Amino acid sequence: MPLKAQRLQRWQQILDLTRHMRELATTGEWQKIVELESHRKQQLTAFFDTPVQPGEVAEVTAGIRDIMHSDGELAQLGSAAKADAAQRVGNIVSGRKAVAAYDHCRK
Q: In the chain, what is the straight-line distance between the N-terminal and C-terminal CA atoms, in Å?
């Protein structure tokens, strides 16, 4: 396979990984996303160790936009999941306080 084709294949793998991370976010698989983000970061670093060639600019630019959009969605989904978890913890704490108050009144 020619060098350019290999390089663009590596770029496509990075984009596929990004899309997979976005899919995992919709199902709340955050630990897997963290693992994949580390792997994606390594792949991005390796990819950009070689300067982008003129014939790659359009495809790489479009891919960067896709990555930025996906990362924005991941951040939004992560914030929503964090808020939901905080709400659940708050409900548990409130429940415990109510039980404690009830127990205190019974004594």
A: 80
Q: Which of 62, 67, 76, 82 is nearest to 36 (CA)?
A: 67
CA angle, 72 then 77 then 83, to 5°: 125
Contacts of 26-32 with C-beta under 8 Å, sequence gap 24+, read 26/77, 28/81, 30/78, 30/81
pTM exceeding the 0.85 threshold for the entire prediction? no
Q: What is the mean pLDDT of residues 79-95?
A: 72
Exposure string for 21-31, b = 16+ CB within 10 A, e = fewer? bbebbeeeeee
Distances, alpha carbon 50 to alpha carbons 15, 71, 106, in Å: 17, 23, 72
